[in-house]
Amino acid sequence: MSVRGKAFIAGAYEHPLRTIPNKTVQQVHAEVAAGALADAGLSFSDVDAYFCAGDAPGFGALSMAEYLGLELTHIDNTETGGSSYLLHVQHAAEAIAAGHCHVALITLAGLPRSSGAGIGGAGRFGSAPEVSFENFFGLSIVAGYAMAARRHMYEFGTTSKQLAEIKVAAASHAQHNPNAFLQNAVTIEEVLQSKMVADPLHMLDCCVVTDGGGALVVVSPEVARKLSRQSVPVLGTGFAVKHVNNGRIDLTHTGAVVSGPRAFAEAGLTPSDIRYASIYDSFTITVLTTLEDLGFCEKGKGGEFVSDGALQAPFGKLPFNTDGGGLCNNHPSNRGGITKVIEAVRQLRNEAHPTVQVPNCQFALAHGTGGNLATRMGSATLILGQEV
Amino acid sequence: MSFLPLADVEVNNETQPFWDALKNNALLLPRCTSCTSVVWYPRAHCPVCFSTELQWEEMSGRGTIYSYSIVAKGNGRWKESGPYVVAYVELAEGPRILTNIVGVAPSEVHINMSVQAVFDTGDDGRVLLRFTSVSTS
């Protein structure tokens, strides 16, 4: 069963704040839920399915259903780190296509800035079987991605300057986003001269740490037709788990090598059809590897591909993360997935900032990478359109 | 032996022989008697062929660096430990495992460097498997 054209994103909302003191996590979930429902022209009483991940408190969707006062016939707590919310869109589309629900609400919220949690995941790992074999070597999140970058450099000659191009493009976009956490343009030299955090990744190769959240409303075609707001059809979905593989890990590719082709096949499209891409950008290396894996360029050629402003909107080869992405705008709860979908929806609705709006943006891609490039990840790809 | 923090690892029935062996300066891993894979991390079944017929076997302790990062400043108990090297070492027997490279200047570390196991033991008997350059030991 394909979900192509069987579900529509009718509402999308990003919390405007990046530091939120004196609020609870569930309160921010409720605020973004209200925002996305208002965007769609729907209300809480219309919701019959709810999706959340590890950032939601307590019993996940059970706790939140009660807190929000929802009456539900379908829930999903799927947790794949920062990619969860893209996978939730896929799961919502499947549930809608199967007739289990009509209006699915997806929320993300977290307060890592105000809680002083710093960079890292919000998941609950407890006594996961890998913990004693990985967690006691000072392996910071950055160091894991740094090892992936180092190996990519070794195998393909990728340079720090090429990685810096990715940050430069994101920062050029963030200048036009009044809510972005970082709003200054940066140069390649500034990236290369920023503090080395975990060699070869500099401070400016890393995403921001922000409070905040976002929400999406996914609806059936019948509901979408009744709404006055432009809905965005889900055309293609793909997901894959990539893990350490019995200690035979290859650090130079992500799960996008599987999720990407699956999403393109379902949509009946190829990378050359995509006018705008939201690419998960926990670190610059995440973007470079993902672009290769999704087929925008050959494996190992990502460094060349991102050079010379290729990712800059509106006229680059492949405009990406026009909100400033996780690198500059927002990485709420240390999870960049939902903001990737939200900016893709803005582009398809022609509602991105005019300076970075991609002309004739007929097809957009959003990709999430949850977990860690150096160990295990959930890779989720969505292809969205303007019409079915 | 090195100056990096040791840890209270979680030992269970699947991993007990691995941790016991480290205390005797030996690296023991399960090998699948069915498909011959060396299993990483230790567990009660082979994740390649799903056999539960595994045998503990002593590894050579030799390997090469697959990738690494020099961490300028760590978090928590590692705050004062930087700069230190986190690495994936590819064991001669196959698995790539997370570890630290110790006893060698971080600037000397490189991909493909030959390394050997160090059984980093504290006064309290806690032990972690780290690696050092073959030439400097």
Description:
The complex is a heterodimer of chains A (388) and B (137). Chain A has 388 residues and is of the alpha/beta class. Chain A has a single domain, classed as Thiolase/Chalcone synthase (Peroxisomal Thiolase, Chain A, domain 1), CATH 3.40.47. Chain A is built from 14 helices and 11 strands. Chain A has helices spanning 25-40, 61-68, 84-97, 112-115, 131-134, 141-156, 160-174, 188-193, 221-226, 256-267, 284-293, 302-305, 325-328, 337-348, and strands at 8-14, 49-51, 74-76, 103-110, 196-199, 201-202, 212-219, 232-242, 276-279, 363-371, 377-385. A 9-stranded mixed sheet of chain A has the order 3-2-4-7-1-8-11-10-9, with helices on both faces. Chain A has a two-stranded antiparallel sheet with strand order 5-6. In chain A, strand 10 (363-371) and strand 11 form a beta hairpin. In chain A, helix 7 packs across helix 11. Chain B has 137 residues and is mainly beta. Chain B has one domain. Chain B has 1 helix and 7 strands. Chain B has one helix at 16-23, and strands spanning 28-32, 54-58, 62-71, 84-91, 96-101, 114-121, 127-133. Chain B has a 5-stranded antiparallel sheet with strand order 5-4-3-6-7. A two-stranded antiparallel sheet of chain B has the order 1-2. In chain B, a hairpin with a 5-residue loop joins strand 6 and strand 7. Chain B is globular, with a radius of gyration of 15 Å. The two termini of chain B are 12 Å apart. The mean pLDDT of chain B is 94. The interface between A and B is large, with 37 and 44 residues. Strand 5 (196-199) of chain A pairs antiparallel with strand 3 of chain B, so a sheet runs across the interface.
